[in-house]
Amino acid sequence: MDFQLTDEQRMIKETVYKWSVNELGPLQEKIDDEDWFPPDFFLKCAEIGILGITIDEKYGGLGGDVLMQTLAIEEMSRICPALAMTYGAHSNLCANNIYKNASEMLKEKYLPPLVSGEKIGALGLTEPNAGSDAMSLRTRAVRKGDKYILNGSKMFITNGPVADTLLVYAKTDPERGAKGISAFIIEKDFPGFSVARKLKKCGMRGSPTAELIFQDCEVPAENLVGQENMGVHVMTSGLDIERIVLAGGSLGMAQQALDYSVRYAVEREQFGQSIAGFQMIQQKLADMYTRTEAARLLVYRAADVAQKSPRGGKGTELTRQAAAAILFAAETATWVCDQGIQIHGGYGYCLEFPVQKLWRDAKLYEIGAGTSEIRRMIIARELTREEFARKAGR
């Protein structure tokens, strides 16, 4: 399989990295120290045209592919993982899911302001008692005339405190379990919607995260995404792409930790020589490089599979590949960043050195979009699915 980037993909990669260095690099200390979200972040993203990479040009997007989206979050994550995650939640979790699943009327209404940065997007799936077990969510939606009335809450919602447009999941027929879930587009000004609190995190500081409350929240019936009780398809197909794109964030952090470590190892001297000359340091650098490159190939391959079967769906090669990509990339990033701290020694544990920030940020991708444990379960389920079916058909 040829993973040579196209001219367009290469341009996105280079543009986003240079932009991140110039625009986000100088803000890093403030963002992390103060858990500060730059209010003009999305408008600046829109200026370089990256908010609608996978969205058709008729809505203001680029009409690009999943790999282009993955490259954008990868390169931004090298400089600012927190804002890269916020960018991914907006452009992929919210806008791309609307593009893939909503009616034409909803696309025309909501996509242009999301692509232009005028509005900020978020996805509302996780709940206080429904994390990895997303199908057990309790938020309830009841049809009353030309509206749905939502009651419940959502937890750990990226962009929650600042979002204008949210794609939210709720049970419309609780008795049917997973087959009774529906998806809705909600605006922050809808009656009954509120942000309960902004959450404090040890990493990914600057990416605003919140608990959301729906108390008799009134949603126009036309804001139903897809068909009633068919939200599980929107959810599962969206999760596959989400896992691939967010895996790009792990790649970016692993690459930057490696870059920092190579530079430090060459410059740092102990016992009269550069520590890059010590075999144990060389082994660490070699292993960090090898794992990062292996993760990159796995993620890019998953993006290629996604582009060939964009709607994905349960029980597909895409599901297996997406879970494997983020599983390996996330655990690689955490490991590489940990090795980076070890190479830096005491300095690596000090806030003045940026490698510690990558270390704190990287862990989240082993938890978000399904934990590492859940990803392993998904992979095993997909590997054994056909064999169980064959056995049952004997």
Give the topology.
Elements: H1 7-24, H2 28-34, H3 41-47, H4 66-77, H5 81-101, H6 104-115, E1 121-124, E2 140-144, E3 147-158, E4 165-171, E5 181-187, E6 193-198, E7 209-220, E8 224-225, H7 231-267, E9 269-270, E10 273-274, H8 279-308, H9 317-344, H10 355-362, H11 372-392
Helix pairs in contact: 1-4, 4-5, 4-7, 5-6, 5-7, 7-8, 7-9, 7-10, 8-9, 9-10, 9-11
Task: Describe this structure as you would to a colleague.
By secondary structure, the protein is α+β, with helices and mostly antiparallel strands. The chain is 51% helix and 15% strand. The protein contains eleven helices and ten strands. It has helices at residues 7-24, 28-34, 41-47, 66-77, 81-101, 104-115, 231-267, 279-308, 317-344, 355-362, 372-392; strands at residues 121-124, 140-144, 147-158, 165-171, 181-187, 193-198, 209-220, 224-225, 269-270, 273-274. The strands form three sheets. It has a four-stranded mixed β-sheet with strand order 1-4-5-8. α4 (66-77) runs antiparallel to α5 (81-101) and α7 runs antiparallel to α10 (355-362). The longest helix is centred in the middle third of the chain and has 37 residues, at 231-267. The model has no long low-confidence stretch (mean pLDDT 93).
Can you give me a brief rundown of this structure?
By secondary structure, the chain is an alpha+beta fold.
Comma- or semicolon-separated keywords:
globular; 11 helices; 4-stranded mixed beta sheet; alpha+beta
- Secondary-structure class: alpha+beta
Ranges with pLDDT <50 over ≥5 residues? none
Q: So what's the overall shape? A: globular
**Mean pLDDT across all amino acids:** 93
| Count of discrete alpha- or pi-helical segments spanning 4 or more residues | 11
How much helix is in the residues? Answer: 40-55%
Please write the string of helix (H) and strand (E) elements: HHHHHHEEEEEEEEHEEHHHH
The radius of gyration computed from the alpha-carbon positions, rounded to a whole number of angstroms, is 21 Å
Please report the distance between the alpha carbons of the first and last residues: 36 Å
> Count the strands?
10
Question: How does the major sheet shape up?
Answer: 4 strands, mixed
- Output the strand order for the largest sheet: 1-4-5-8
Beta-strand percent range = 5-15%
